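quick one before i forget lol
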Amino acid sequence: MKIRFVDLKVGDRVLLPRKGGEQLMTEVVHMETVREGRYRIQFLNERYQYVSTEDMVEVLPELSPRAVKQAATRAAMASDPALQAARDRAEAAVLAQPAAAETKRFVVGQTYMGRFASDYDTKAHFTILSRTNHTVTTTVRGKQVRRGLSVYNGVEQFKPFGSYSMAMVIDANDPAS
């Protein structure tokens, strides 16, 4: 089926014509360029079922309001040196910003403390036996286990008992005292 749309993008809701003059409300979930101005589009209906993966939709980018606005902005930037200078200053300011702070990391041999969500007074201590860039090895319930690391707010953390709704999280800011 070939349909003409202007300025279509993923997430848009579209009424598709059906046999008998009916219309079906759908949502665009995937767009793939076949060639300039022609796309293969996947639609989902209200029941989240794919309508068709072979619908060819022809988009007219030359009539798109977004395309017209972008072209006007590019033309204004090219003709106005003050706009170009402002853009250059903004790019220089972004490049001049200091690099992100160093990530706080776990140290091999150091012991870290965590508390249980269900009983805050109960503490658990974990000593880092070894580490890589992506994992730490520690002892949990008498067994050596390897756990994956994640970074939150510039601090490494891991879940010693695995991932579940109220899982304990040990982070590098909580060394045992």
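fyi Helices lie at 65-79, 81-96.
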